[in-house]
């Protein structure tokens, strides 16, 4: 700020920082209405069957970048409020609904949960939080409607997924698999230590041995993933057993992960020049071209040879690149200002010595 001649109010900055930290801590605390007690879970086990969420994989590709996510006709099985099962919910109340079938994906495998809409007779609920409790999925939101509407067990309901958010997750998750495959081609010894897929970006944590990741590696990774996108490769999901999985070649598994004996989802992307096979429960695009674009936005060191790479996909890439160019221009302008200030100071010092 001094180099640019800008004013900086340190007290105001510190006060704002304290306020932001307080808001962050508050938002991190789960609401009392977004929990399920042990007694509630036991009651669910005794009275209703597990939630069937297999419809989360039921979608099709209509045209390039265009996907159809069918609604699911379902029935309310239980209403949860304050961590316990209650008889009904009224308009304006924030509750959790357990339904017999859903098309929403709960947080798992590093992928964030879906959001969606539940629509009944005379009422709707925007599901902004999806909680996995054992074999049950609890859809949390505020009941909206008119008059004396009641939502109770047995009420018919339709479930719709937020398609924009889901498709963003699918793009980033498939891009994560492409990135992981290219990392294994680039480095002799590397393994994934963690990953996160959200609506805004993906984060991939990995360790390398014997080689350090540098700028050239990052640029090459970005270019290689973009090539996979342009190659328009089909993305296939199959279900295999653990025995079948161990007999396959070139399958990427998470170190330390325990896989079930049956029902393992395998995501495969293959061509003559590219192979990606990963056991994964997430949702993915059906063709790599639907990722649209890929850009690495940052790389951070986590210590002990572990790097954390953040990237974006889809339309977000263009904005990130524009922001990056803006930052470069600002840095160049700052360097020029600093150079000017330094030059002026040197001139003043020289004149001072001359006067002496």
From TrEMBL:
GO terms for molecular function: alanine-tRNA ligase activity; aminoacyl-tRNA deacylase activity; ATP binding; tRNA binding. Gene3D superfamilies: 2.40.30.130, Threonyl-trna Synthetase, Chain A, domain 2. Transmembrane segments: none annotated. Coiled coil: none annotated. Pfam families: tRNA-synt_2c (PF01411), tRNA_SAD (PF07973). It is an enzyme of class 6 (ligase). Belongs to the class-II aminoacyl-tRNA synthetase family. Alax-L subfamily. This is alanine--tRNA ligase. It comes from Homalodisca liturata.
């Amino acid at each position: 700020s001094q180099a640019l001649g800008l004013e900086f109010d340190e007290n105001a900055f510190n006060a704002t920082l304290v306020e932001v930290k307080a808001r962050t801590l508050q938002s991190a605390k789960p609401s009392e209405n977004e929990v399920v007690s042990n007694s509630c879970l036991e009651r669910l086990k005794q009275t209703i069957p597990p939630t069937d969420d297999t419809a989360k994989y039921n979608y099709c590709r209509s045209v390039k970048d265009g996907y159809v996510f069918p609604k699911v006709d379902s029935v309310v099985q239980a209403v949860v409020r304050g961590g316990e099962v209650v008889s009904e919910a009224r308009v304006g109340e924030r509750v959790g609904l357990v339904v017999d079938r859903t098309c929403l994906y709960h947080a798992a495998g590093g992928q964030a949960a879906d959001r969606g809409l539940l629509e009944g007779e005379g009422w709707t609920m925007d599901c902004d939080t999806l909680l996995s409790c054992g074999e049950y999925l609890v859809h949390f939101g505020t009941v909206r409607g008119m008059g004396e509407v009641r939502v109770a067990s047995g009420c018919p309901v339709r479930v719709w997924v937020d398609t924009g958010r889901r498709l963003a997750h699918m793009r980033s998750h498939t891009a994560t698999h492409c990135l992981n495959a290219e990392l294994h081609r680039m480095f002799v010894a590397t393994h994934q230590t963690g990953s996160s897929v959200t609506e805004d970006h993906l984060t991939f944590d990995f360790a390398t041995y014997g080689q350090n990741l540098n700028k050239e590696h990052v640029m090459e990774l970005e270019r290689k993933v973009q090539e996979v996108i342009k190659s328009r490769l089909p993305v296939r999901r199959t279900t295999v057993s653990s025995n079948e999985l161990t007999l396959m070649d070139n399958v990427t598994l998470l170190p330390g992960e325990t896989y079930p004996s049956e029902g393992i989802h395998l995501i495969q992307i293959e061509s003559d020049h590219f192979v990606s096979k990963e056991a994964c429960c997430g949702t993915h695009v059906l063709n790599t071209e639907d990722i649209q674009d890929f850009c690495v936005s940052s790389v951070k060191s986590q210590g002990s040879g572990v790097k954390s790479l953040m990237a974006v996909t889809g339309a977000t890439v263009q904005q990130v690149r524009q922001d990056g160019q803006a930052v470069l221009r600002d840095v160049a302008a700052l360097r020029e200002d600093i150079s000017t200030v330094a030059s002026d100071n040197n001139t003043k010092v020289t004149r001072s010595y001359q006067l002496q």
